[in-house]
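FIELD: query
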Amino acid sequence: MASDNDSTGMTVSLPAAQKDYVKNRATASGCSTPSEYIRRLIHADQKAHEQEDLERRILEGLDSPARQMTAADWRDLRATLKAKLGKRRKAP
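FIELD: result
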């Protein structure tokens, strides 16, 4: 099974003006290569998507009917959150 750090190639065709822009932005932002700059853009997009998903889920929860949380509910919630946060802390 491949890890998240395994790299693979991908070819993207850009007009010359965009290619120059990417090269210039990569240098200006401290990236060592245009590929690193593109990876940063994709990572930022992924984070934004995760944030949007979280906000959507929070709104769904706020709009759902209220119910009393039991001790078992809290225990399950804590375990689920610890597992998710533990995975995120280990990710680069």
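FIELD: remark
Residues 60 and 66 are 12 Å apart (CA to CA).
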